[in-house]
């Protein structure tokens, strides 16, 4: 195993780094260094400045004023290279060869019109002067090093033909093809499912040990930091507020913001469900989509894709049923069926024996009792509607006899219930969604669902788009509302920590099937299925 060589001069030494956009400084005098072979994590929430800091080191931040010093040790002796003063020609030689970067979302970082092999080969031809044949062979070799099966065949595919994990492996192969001395990894696992995150992190650790490169990991995920890094630097509002070894910072954090981040892991806080009659019950639920059969034409030449296969569950009164699984497992499809938004087969009883009917009119009564909070508050709220219109819209449908003053009073009371008041936001009812943060928007979405006084809320990844501290606040709000209102929740998530914090019972789904179900304590503390054990281990 390669240990960071702290006895040698730093591979990269950054002093008084300042980055400004239009006269507004967003990184305020950052100082840090990375030793050869070291893994340093730069951690912070959205908007903390961590990605801008990393991009500024290789001058990939456009329209920014960058000052300070970022000195890269030379590969073969000589004077250090001042990255912030280097010419564009010098930087072209450094990028990819000495310093490489992995971006957060490979689907947008990879070129969709070139094969994976061509994109990696181009790097080798430009940076190492290889022939086309040598570069192609090098691309296949780089893909093989990342563990992609059938690397020669995968090299001839396009980005959209690969899975999310394979695209991220291809991005890593491209970054490491020229054996850089420093890898900048910007949220390399954020776009991946939890089990894939562990695989990619293990891959990076293995490749780091094999090559001896240093890694600057940009992340908001403290679990990744614990698992991967040697040292950690914590960033808040453009300031580096704390640095040290992972052990010292996590065991004895000095700065209040660091303590806040560490304490923000969701804590279990559930009461026993109220009563015994479930508010929703499914028996042998199946959701089937028609798919084209190759070689046939016409509507009657269709095959079937079974997205949910024979699911059985009950949502306890005043309790939470969690459904956990990766992307494509069928959990969100099951939520849509539970909401009556897509057709299903099998039995589904909603709120004491009612069933979804064939049309909007027949479902209006049930629709009031079953509401939904969607994953992304940035897209689920209309940008053209005011807060009063968004939150009060359900009353126009379900209580049309209310006067405008009565409706406005209900909107005010519901907003106060979710922690949004006129004292905090003068003119609250006339504001628009873009005037609020992500956590505040999700509170608006919760208020919109609550105002019609439902019995069941379907929560589809309600915190996945939020930073960790904001996630904790929203989970505490949902826990409080459940106690005060006696609400039942159908909670859809990929996050085992959220299930542990919120749920009474849990279903584990994979490929449309329920692999395991039971109480949260049974399933998460004593998992029986190998896939469940993998999920739990990845979240540890």
Automatic annotation (TrEMBL):
Keyword Membrane part of the UniProt annotation: yes
Q: Where in the cell is it found?
A: Cell inner membrane
Q: Which Pfam families match?
A: ABC_tran (PF00005), oligo_HPY (PF08352)
Q: Which residues form the ABC transporter domain?
A: 12-262, 280-536
Note the PROSITE patterns from the entry.
ABC_TRANSPORTER_1, ABC_TRANSPORTER_2
**Which InterPro entries does this UniProt record tie to the protein?**
AAA+_ATPase (IPR003593), ABC_Ni/Peptide_Import (IPR050388), ABC_transporter-like_ATP-bd (IPR003439), ABC_transporter-like_CS (IPR017871), Oligopep_ABC_C (IPR013563), P-loop_NTPase (IPR027417)
User: Which branch of life, at top level?
Assistant: Bacteria
Q: Name one GO biological process term.
A: peptide transport
One GO cellular-component annotation of the UniProt record comes to: plasma membrane
Give the main localization category: membrane
Membrane topology according to the record: Peripheral membrane protein
Q: Which family does it belong to?
A: Belongs to the ABC transporter superfamily.
Q: What is this protein called?
A: ABC transporter ATP-binding protein
Native organism: Ramlibacter montanisoli
The uppermost taxa in this organism's lineage are: Bacteria, Pseudomonadati, Pseudomonadota, Betaproteobacteria, Burkholderiales
């Amino acid at each position: 195993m390669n240990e960071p060589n702290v006895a040698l001069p730093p591979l990269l030494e950054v002093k008084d780094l300042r980055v400004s956009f239009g006269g507004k400084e967003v990184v305020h005098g950052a100082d840090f260094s990375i030793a050869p072979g070291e893994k340093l994590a730069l951690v912070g929430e959205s908007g903390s400045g961590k990605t801008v800091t990393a991009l500024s080191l290789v001058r990939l931040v456009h329209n920014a004023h960058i000052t300070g010093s970022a000195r890269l040790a030379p590969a073969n002796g000589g004077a250090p290279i001042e990255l912030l003063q280097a010419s564009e020609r010098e930087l072209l030689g450094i990028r990819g060869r000495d310093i490489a970067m992995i971006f957060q979302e490979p689907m947008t970082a990879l070129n969709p019109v070139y094969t994976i092999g061509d994109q990696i080969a181009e790097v080798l031809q430009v940076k190492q002067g290889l022939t086309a044949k040598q570069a192609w062979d090098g691309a296949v070799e780089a893909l093989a090093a990342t563990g992609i099966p059938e690397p020669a065949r995968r090299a001839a595919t396009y980005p959209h033909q690969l899975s999310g994990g394979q695209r991220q492996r291809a991005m890593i192969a491209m970054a490491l093809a020229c054996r850089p001395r420093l890898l900048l990894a910007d949220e390399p696992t954020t776009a991946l499912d939890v089990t894939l995150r562990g695989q990619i992190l293990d891959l990076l650790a293995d490749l780091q040990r094999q090559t001896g490169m240093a890694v600057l990991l940009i992340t908001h995920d403290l679990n990744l930091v614990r698992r991967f890094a040697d040292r950690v630097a914590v960033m808040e509002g453009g300031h580096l507020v704390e640095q040290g070894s992972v052990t010292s910072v996590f065991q004895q954090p000095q700065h209040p913001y660091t303590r806040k981040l560490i304490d923000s892991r969701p804590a279990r806080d559930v009461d026993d469900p109220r009563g015994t009659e479930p508010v929703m019950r499914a028996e042998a639920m199946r959701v089937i989509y028609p798919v084209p059969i190759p070689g046939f034409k016409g509507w009657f030449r269709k095959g079937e894709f079974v997205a949910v296969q024979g699911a059985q569950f009950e949502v306890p009164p005043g309790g939470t049923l969690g459904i956990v699984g990766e992307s494509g497992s069928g959990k969100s499809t099951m939520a849509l069926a539970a909401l009556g938004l897509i057709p299903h087969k099998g039995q589904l009883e909603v709120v004491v024996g009612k069933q979804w009917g064939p049309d909007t009119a027949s479902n209006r009564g049930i629709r009031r009792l079953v509401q939904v909070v969607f994953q992304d508050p940035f897209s689920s709220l209309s940008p053209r509607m005011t807060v009063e219109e968004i939150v009060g819209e359900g009353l126009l449908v379900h209580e049309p006899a209310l006067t405008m003053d009565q409706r406005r009073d209900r909107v005010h009371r519901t907003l106060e219930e979710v922690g949004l008041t006129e004292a905090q936001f003068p003119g609250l009812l006339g504001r628009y969604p873009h005037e609020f943060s992500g956590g505040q928007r999700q509170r608006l979405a919760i208020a919109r669902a609550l105002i019609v006084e439902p019995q069941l809320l379907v929560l589809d990844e309600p915190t996945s788009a939020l930073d960790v501290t904001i996630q904790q606040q929203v989970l505490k709000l949902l826990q409080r509302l459940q106690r005060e209102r006696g609400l039942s929740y159908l909670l859809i998530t990929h996050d085992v920590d959220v299930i542990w914090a919120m749920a009474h019972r849990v279903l584990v789904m994979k490929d449309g099937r329920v692999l395991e179900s039971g109480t949260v304590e049974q399933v998460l503390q004593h998992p029986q299925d190998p896939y469940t054990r993998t999920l739990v281990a990845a979240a540890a």
